[in-house]
Amino acid sequence: MEIAFFLEILLTFFTSFNDTDTYMPVKKLKPIANNYIFNGSFIFDFLAVIPYQFLVKEQEDFYGDE
Q: What domain range includes position 34?
């Protein structure tokens, strides 16, 4: 599943968007990346890609096994 979110991140960095002032499509990569990172859902997509094991410390179970 992480692969799907990773591919979505890559695709979104190359997908144009309409400027809010001029309503013209923005096709340059740097403004697209800035828009996605600062105004889009990049943080949620990035968190979805990180494997769960890196976010949660592994704890011993009830019987002392890891």
A: 2-55
